[in-house]
Write a structure and sequence with these properties.
Blueprint lengths: L2 H10 L4 H17 L6 E6 L7 H5 L2 E6 L3 H11 L19 E7 L8 H10 L1 E12 L7 H5 L8 H10 L2 E9 L4 H14 L11 H12 L15 E8 L1
Parallel strand pairs: 1-2, 1-3, 3-4
Antiparallel strand pairs: 4-6, 5-6
Helix pairs in contact: 2-9
Amino acid sequence: MDRIVYDRMAAHDSTHWWYRARRDILADYLARYGGLPEGARILEIGCGTGHNLPMLAGFGEVDAIEIDPAARAIASARLGKEVGAAPLPVLPDVPRGHYDLIAVLDVVEHIEDDVAALSAMRERLAPGGRILITVPAHQWMWSAHDVVNHHHRRYSKARLVKAITDAGLRPRRLGYFNSLLFPLAAGARLAGRITGRDDSDDAPPPAPVNRLFEAVFRLERHLVGRVPMPPGVSIVTFAEPA
């Protein structure tokens, strides 16, 4: 990712509606469907500034990986121990057969060979372990945001299922989320394309709007995994060894 993306993450990951509501949605999703054992061993790959680590620590003992040095330093301070730097798709020195949960939250789209990355994760799972995956949806929504984040692709459900199955995994409870705000997001992307004002700025909107978006997005914690969601900005799934 461009340096500015990490800088914005560090500045806004505690206040931006998207980060805050997504953490709550994923925490509920994990609590309902994660099936994690007591004291689960958890690895987050591509943890950025570590904003998800306190949430994940509610489910077990967390390790983390981040390849950007500045973001890794912030994440290490949040985690209270050193965050590793092993890159995908190789994951050198990451123990095999060890983790009950691997979380890759908006990470797989950054890896050119997504199948090799998912295969490497599968090899690091303990028996009964699973991978929690979120990715951006809809290639037609490609924008400057994807460019500065160094995405290789956005996913359809079918494309994500194929990558998962080609890696020797099977998806579980795959569905869209960030659906309630999807019409606004889609409209903004299309308007930017039509006007030529495609903008990568993801700073929080004015405070009242930020609070409103957070409240609307957070409502999905009651829905994701329980009911089929209409098209959304993102896709979430578990992946288990086939």
